[in-house]
Write a structure and sequence with these properties.
By secondary structure, the protein is of the alpha+beta class. The protein has one domain (about 1-220). Helices cover about 50% and strands about 20% of the residues. The protein contains nine helices and seven strands. The protein has helices spanning about 1-20, 65-70, 75, 95-105, 110-130, 135, 140-150, 185-205, 210-220, and strands at about 30, 35-40, 50-55, 55, 85-95, 155-165, 175-185. Strands 1-2-5-7-6-3-4 form a seven-stranded antiparallel β-sheet, with helices on both faces. Strand 3 and strand 4 (about 55) form a beta hairpin. It starts with a helix and ends in a 5-residue tail after the last helix.
Length: about 230
């Protein structure tokens, strides 16, 4: 599992270096087999830099995107329309509008959402563990992440797709487009799905006494801050 993590980190570095020109402070990770970039933190996109959007010229942003740019997906989840859902914002950026449009069009819930969900699940493990998750949870950690990355999540919805056109950042760059894909899933449905998955996995994997205690503690508190 550690070798896989290192390989993933190398892949992230390569994708960010060669595919995300001018991306600045975006916190991104690659989605395997699609080239998708997903973002889980607020990004600095000054509204004065926006010269056109899907809604026309000017800075006509939907409420979810305005909330996201101001403070990340947690702010979107606090909006009245989405406070009973988990929110995922996915993006891609470049200067080829046609290619980005195709990327957004072919973003598939059944395939791509599992990567977004498994990444959020993996991050929760790291936030909870006091040591490397493989050492603290044994094969439970590895098995959960692999399963989470390969299943379909019932009820996940592709809510909206939106794009903005940005003025050049400096004289050495050109105008660029940022496409956002906004997906959600009902909180109760996702929590039930993950709990059932963890229960099955905890029954199937072998763990020592300390790992069993850590796994049970994690399962009890997993959705705090998820």
């Amino acid at each position: 599992m550690k070798r896989e993590i290192y390989a993933l980190l190398y892949l992230i570095a390569a994708v960010l270096l060669f595919s995300c020109r001018g991306q600045g402070n975006y916190a991104t990770f690659p989605v395997p087999n699609t080239g998708t970039l997903a973002i889980d933190e607020p990004s600095v996109i000054g509204e004065l830099n926006i010269i056109e959007t899907k809604n026309g010229y000017g800075r006509n942003l939907p409420l979810w995107l305005r909330a996201f740019l101001s403070g990340g997906f947690r702010v979107v989840e606090n909006l009245q329309d989405y406070n009973d859902k988990y929110v995922f914002i996915t993006l891609n950026r470049g200067d080829n509008f046609a290619a980005l449009s195709k990327w957004a069009e072919y973003f598939g819930i059944n395939q791509d959402f599992a990567v977004l969900a498994s990444t959020r699940i993996e991050r929760r493990f790291y936030l909870t563990s006091s040591i490397y998750p493989d050492d603290e949870y044994g094969r439970f950690f590895e098995t959960v992440i692999k399963n989470a990355n390969s299943v379909e999540y019932p009820g996940a919805v592709k809510e909206d797709t939106f794009w903005i056109r940005l003025r050049p950042e400096n004289e050495d760059t050109t105008e660029s487009y940022v496409f956002f894909i906004f997906t959600t899933i009902d909180k109760i449905n996702m929590q039930t799905f993950i709990r059932n998955m963890m229960e099955q996995i905890s029954s199937d994997v072998t763990a020592n006494a300390n790992q069993t205690i850590a796994i049970n503690r994690l399962r009890q508190t997993f959705f705090e801050g998820f």
